Amino acid sequence: MKKNTLVITGIAASLALLVACSDEVTEVTNVSEMVSLDTVKKFKELPKCEEETEGSVMYVKDSAKVYVCTGDGWTRMNGKDGEKGDKGDKGDKGANGAAGDDGASCTAKQTKDKTGFDIVCDGKTVGTVKNGEDGKGGDKGDKGPDGTSGTSCSAKANKDKTGFDILCGGKTVGTIKNGEDGEDGDDCTLTEGENGQIIVKCGEESVTLFKASCGVATYDPATQFCSNDKKVYPLCHKALGGLEPYLNPDGTYNVQGYFCDSSDLLVSLCVTSPYDYTTQFCSNRSIYSRCSSIAEGLAENVLKEDGSYDGMIYFCSEKGVLYEKCAGSPYDPDLQFCDKSEENPQVVAKCGGQTYEIKTQWCVNGQIESSIACCVKEGQNDKWCEGHPNSLYDIRNQFCDTRDGQPYKFTEITVKGDSGKVIYSETWMAQNLNYAGTGADESACIDCETIGRFYTWPAAMSYCPDGWRLPTMAEFAALNNAVDDGQRMLKLKVNYGWSPAGTDEYGFSLMQSSYMMDVSQTEVKSDGMRAALFWTSSPRTEQQISRNDAHYVIYNNESYSDNANSVDIGFPVRCIKDKN
Q: Is the pLDDT at 356 greater than 70, yes or no?
């Protein structure tokens, strides 16, 4: 036999052509319209085959056969008569035809996406029957339940007399070809069941189709229902305590407020979302996982008997253990821990699976090590810090100036562009220089712990620690261009005496400093300026040299600028790390 091929759209068409899966109809191709097929229970109930009905197609249920009205009357769509072959016995249908193979037995199975049915003949998928969309009744076809308009179809013998062309709405939508000679295949029968079911049986195989449709999908009225939103929902048979009045006797419910969970239980939606009531619960308008045990240190009463808890404070790990959130956020307890040593708790990665004190320890290659070291002054031993506790420093964000055993904070500033490419990367001191030097007339101190010392320009040029240097005016400008957010440099904030240090995003920690007119007299001159000023190492012009001036920069919370002034005036110093 020829291989069966079938491409159909519409439930009505599927019922018409499934019965043709025996040896008599072996190929159906290019069917794309919505097809309907009139049926009668018995052959004798067929209407008269007259000139005005010639070409119409009817399905007879008791014999599971399809007939077409031709000039010779009602003609069964069957195999063509064959002539006597060289080999083989007399065929069942031909006069002396060659014996052929059995016809194919076909069944229909619902597609994976549930939008129709695959037609399977001899174990192979030969075509797909897709569900129709909503439509109004056609001019001649009857309207199905929420179904697509039916189209009046007829059949005419094709030009080469090998079968029949199917015409729907005046268009040829497919061809039913005659089968080759052979024995009868298993006939298909259609049985109407309850709730709009159609049971199609071909041989020993059977499949159940549903005439009930909802939007673009069909559904089983025995287990599902179609809601007003034209979507299919499962019927429910029991309700959560207190929700019994909201479950209708027929198993339907208001899908805007309720859903049927996996255990066939009617539950209220969590705002607008369904969830698995057996493993989840709704609290504070959010869905959380139920928990089975609590972490060490938590009170037992924070976990209720049903596994629920306050989702605003606690969370359930993947292993079903309840933990307290860290600053309002869940985390992975196997890989992270919540450090509460600071005012604002933070999530920290474990080191080799262990927690540690982040104030004094850090993780190096999976090992926990102390992050606190002693900044030893040149010529002193490790006991230096016993008498100078301020020389203890954190090596993660500070460096040691061995000239006087004084540590300084630093900040690594890296900025990326819109494409993710790094456009700026430099390391700056995060506090002002406080090295006294050797010249009494080169620097002065008023509030060294807060704003460092004030230096003359010659001293500033040579007093940065080893590995660091005085930045140029261009380097200050590059920093500001990189962090500028279009709001007049507000990212590099100047902190005044009543403001805490280190509040800006990049940890640059600018402090109001102003300048000193004479470092030898320690007289502070502010001129009412609420700003931070720094010397730069930019080359001086001939005019500046003649006037004994040098460049400096000015930061305030409104702008960044540069200027020049006498090299003998005292300005603070901020150093940049030397990459050379």
A: yes
Beta carbons within 10 angstroms of residue 468's beta carbon: 21
The answer for residues whose C-beta is within 8 angstroms of residue 519's C-beta and 6 or more apart is 441, 442, 443, 444, 454, 455, 456, 568, 570
If we measure between CA atoms, which residue out of 390, 474, 471, 477 comes closest to residue 427? 471
110 forms beta bridges with 117
Q: CA–CA separation, 211 vs 199, rounded Å?
A: 11
Task: Give just the sign of the alpha carbon dihedral 114, 119, 124, 125.
Answer: negative
- Separation between Cα atoms, residue 157 and residue 72, nearest integer Å: 12
Contact 510, 555 (CB under 8 A): yes
The predicted structure's pLDDT at residue 329: 94
Outline where 308-358 has alpha helix (H): none
Give the whole-angstrom CA distance, residue 126 versus residue 120: 6
What number of residues does the chain have? 580
375 - beta bridge partners?
none
Environment class of residue 122 by beta-carbon count within 10 Å: exposed (0-12), middle (13-18) or buried (19+)?
Answer: middle
> Considering only CA atoms, which of 397, 367, 400, 370 is closest in space to residue 385?
400
334-365 exposure pattern, b = at least 16 Cβ within 10 A, e = fewer:
eebbbbeeeeebbbbebbeeeebebeeebbee
Strands 124-130, 8-9: pairing kind: parallel
What's at 417, amino acid-wise? Answer: G
Of 447, 430, 463, 523, nearest to 455 (Cα)? 463
Q: State mean pLDDT over 212-241.
A: 88
Strands (E), 255-335: 258-260, 265-268, 280-283, 286-289, 293-294, 314-316, 321-324
The region that residue 114 occupies, defined by phi over 0 for left and psi between -120 and 50 for alpha, beta otherwise, is: left
Which of 7-16, 87-96, 294-303, 437-446 is the least confident region? 7-16
Question: Contacts for 517-524 with beta carbons within 8 Å, 24 or more apart?
Answer: 517/569, 517/570, 518/568, 518/570, 519/441, 519/442, 519/443, 519/444, 519/454, 519/455, 519/456, 519/568, 519/570, 520/440, 520/441, 520/444, 522/444, 522/445, 522/446, 524/446
Q: What is the mean pLDDT of residues 53-81?
A: 67
Instruction: Name the residue among 349, 276, 347, 269 with its Cα closest to residue 315.
Output: 347
Report strand pairing: 124-130 vs 116-121: antiparallel
Predicted structure pTM score: 0.53
**CA dist 404 → 164, 299, 407 (Å):** 105, 52, 9
Nearest CA among 485, 491, 514, 487 for reference residue 503: 491
CA distances from 527 to 442, 448, 515, 530, 552 (A): 22, 20, 9, 9, 16
Contact yes or no for 163/177 (Cβ under 8 A):
yes
Q: Where are the alpha helices (DSSP H) in 185-317?
A: none
Which of 540, 559, 561 has its CA nearest to residue 550? Answer: 540
Q: What is the rounded CA–CA span in Å between residue 307 and residue 287?
A: 13
Bridge pairing between strands 224-226 and 232-234:
antiparallel
Phi, psi of 244 (to 5 degrees): -55, -40
Residue 500, pLDDT > 80, answer no
Per-domain residue ranges for the chain? 8-214, 410-577
Q: Report the half-sphere exposure of 325 (CA within 13 A, side-chain side).
A: 11
